Amino acid sequence: SSINRLIVRAFAVKPPVGHPLELLRQSAERRLLCDSQGLRLPDANWVLQIAVAQPFTVAPSLKTVTFQQVSTFGLDFVMKRPEQAISASTTRVLRENPPVSILYKTGEYKEGDTVEQWRGEGTVKEIDLKELISTAPNYGLAGILASKRATDQLRKIEGIVSQAQEPIKTEVYRTRIEKHAKFIELVQQTRRELENGNVTREELEDAIIAFRFVPDRMERMIGGPDMITWERWEWKMQTDKKGLSSSDVRQLLPF
User: Fold this and answer.
1) How many whole angstroms from its chain centre is CA 172?
2) CA distances from residue 218 to 12, 40, 59, 194 in whole angstroms, order as listed
3) Per-residue confidence of the chain (255 residues) as pLDDT tens digits?
4) Global pTM value
5) Is there a contact between 46 and 66 (Cβ–Cβ < 8 Å)?
6) CA distance 107 to 98
7) CA distance 59 to 187
């Protein structure tokens, strides 16, 4: 019967073959989120969440960022470069290579499909923006650039955003919009300049920073209505003295 076939399948599962980030890339390519090189496809809504540890007195800082590329080297993304005057921004904390966690979810829980939940722990490192700028979407770049422009002294005088204030202790700083309509105009103007090639490389590099998440551990949980239970696999990453990486894989209980 179909039930018996499912039971046999459940107890005859073979370990996933390959590097976990390559498996993630293959899944994303099947879902038309990236190409064979792991580069984000134009207009693909391909995002992950990254959490940065904070002291127990405050909540962890959680950010949603857009995948720009996935490879066996790591997961690449861009963020707004931190303001010099602000010491507690998430981006500034990331530049110090703290331990971080990531979460990525894709798929649908319906017949013929599966839901995949990827979790990971590791560190992030800054990489050259040139590696990613060609794949980053204009709407995302425009939002970052406009936010950076809005915090310039001239824009503050025009009243688009509030004056910067140092947050209490380790609280993450968040800039408040004072005049929404003016900020929307600024975003539209910035996007037009980007599309027409009127934004200099210097301004881009001053406003945007590129990071790569490098995992120490990855985990995938996959399930759907055609499966009896969730399949959960864990990879622990290792690097030998020659700099070659490998991973050990094992199956975990789903709960």
Assistant:
1) 18
2) 22, 21, 23, 36
3) 455 444 444 445 688 899 999 999 999 999 999 999 999 998 899 999 999 987 667 788 899 999 999 999 999 999 988 776 555 578 888 888 889 999 999 999 999 899 999 999 999 999 998 878 777 878 888 888 888 888 774 445 455 566 555 544 444 556 777 778 888 898 999 999 988 889 888 898 888 999 999 999 999 999 999 999 999 999 998 776 655 566 789 999 999
4) 0.81
5) yes
6) 30
7) 30
